[in-house]
Amino acid sequence: MGLPTKAKTWNWTSNQVSTFVSLLATSKDILYGYKVAIAGMSGATVKGSSVGATSSMDAVDRWSSAAALGARVANRTTNACTWIVFTLSGFGGADVLFAMTGNSNSSCFIAVSPSGSFTVGNTQCPTAPDEIPHSNNVDGSLLHSTTASANRIWSIGVTSDGTGIYMLVARSGVENFYCGIQMITETVEAPSSFSPPIVVFSNVAGAAMTSGSSGITNFLSNGSTYKAASYADGGSGDAVLTVLFGTEAYGGSNSAATRLTFAPELQGGGNLLPEISAWSETGLVRGKLGWMTDLWFAYVSGATGDTYPNDTSRQFLQWNVLALPWDGSVVVLT
After folding, report:
1. How many domains does the chain have?
2. How far is CA 237 from CA 100, 226, 232, 278, in A?
3. From CA 52, how far away is CA 86, in angstroms rounded?
4. Structural domain contains residue 4
5. Which pLDDT score is estimated for 276?
6. Which domain holds residue 145?
7. Model pTM score
8. How far from 310 is each of 64, 158, 218, 307, 324, CA to CA, in Å?
9. Which of 6, 152, 183, 191 has the fewest CB atoms inside 10 Å of its own CB, making it the most exposed?
10. Is residue 264 part of a domain?
């Protein structure tokens, strides 16, 4: 039996300081930094872009600098706005959209089209029939605090195989933002309507992250609340995914699993729970959809910025109730 080989690595652009000038300048700085990291991601190509005046799905990157980005607009479908779309081969050809829209200069809109269907006919923000938004606000939600002072610290991690993205923002020692985009692996159910199996998850508008169904949100959106869903339930409506921890089973009121309402403590030693899995709770297709690799619940007495193990290797980072792979650097939150 041969030795195991490394399947992928997480490449982090970590602890980046956005020196505060204004809320809008901070948003531009962070989004441009995210754009640079994703542009360097394996299998990522620019599908199109806009800086508020000229736009097209012409494979041109118009985001030449943070300063080049245009103004934030409130409504992404009626106002000319700044946006960029990447096609990600590691996500099965899905598109990811970043747009400067929302009700505040601290806002942005991030969404994924699993089928790679973002289109635009003018300078308005692209849309797709299957888009999965990072926010329950169809025009965007907070990327960072609305308090007009203090630097923001942002980080972004992307995988070497192009199948995962984590984005973080903090201000004055407090987490402001978390968003992840990931391929589900080891999928038990794999209907064509859930292909490629992509989830988007975030703490919306700065809300506290908990491990219940209303905390780590937007695994897939349902039609009554969000824009669209990409996992069909066989005819009775769109499926809603939740975070569950328990036995693997099919059927039953909660897929034979227990919904978490807090991040548990295991023997008081800071152990991580098994990797988080995504489940469907829709009546016709209850069951486990798969694991979200490299994402765990951390222990309850930890805090954002803690690293594990408790040595200088700093292999994992705690971000609220979540634990993520980290690059070994000293975490900066202020």
Report:
1. 1
2. 31, 13, 7, 18
3. 17
4. no
5. 65
6. 11-325
7. 0.82
8. 40, 24, 32, 7, 15
9. 6
10. yes
Residue 270 has pLDDT above 50, yes or no: no
Q: Is the pLDDT reported for residue 199 higher than 70?
A: no
61-67 LR contacts (CB < 8 Å, sep 24+): 61/35, 63/32, 63/35, 65/32, 66/25, 66/28, 66/29, 66/31, 66/32, 66/33, 67/28
Q: Is residue 331 part of a domain?
A: no
For residue 113, tell me if it sits in a domain.
yes
Type and span of the H or E element at 98:
strand 94-99
Mean pLDDT, to the nearest integer, of 289-304? Answer: 72
Confidence of residue 19 (pLDDT cuts 50, 70, 90): very high
| pLDDT band at residue 269 under the 50/70/90 scheme | very low
Which structure tokens are listed for 141?
Answer: 């939600």
Q: Are 239 and 132 in contact (CB under 8 A)?
A: no
Q: Are 96 and 86 in contact (CB under 8 A)?
A: yes
Say how far apart CA 30 and CA 26 lie, in whole Å.
Answer: 6
**Cα end-to-end distance, the chain, whole Å:** 47
Highest average pLDDT, of 128-132, 185-189, 328-332, comes from 328-332
In this structure, the number of other CB atoms found within 10 A of the CB of residue 253 comes to 9
- Biggest CA–CA distance in the chain, Å, is 60
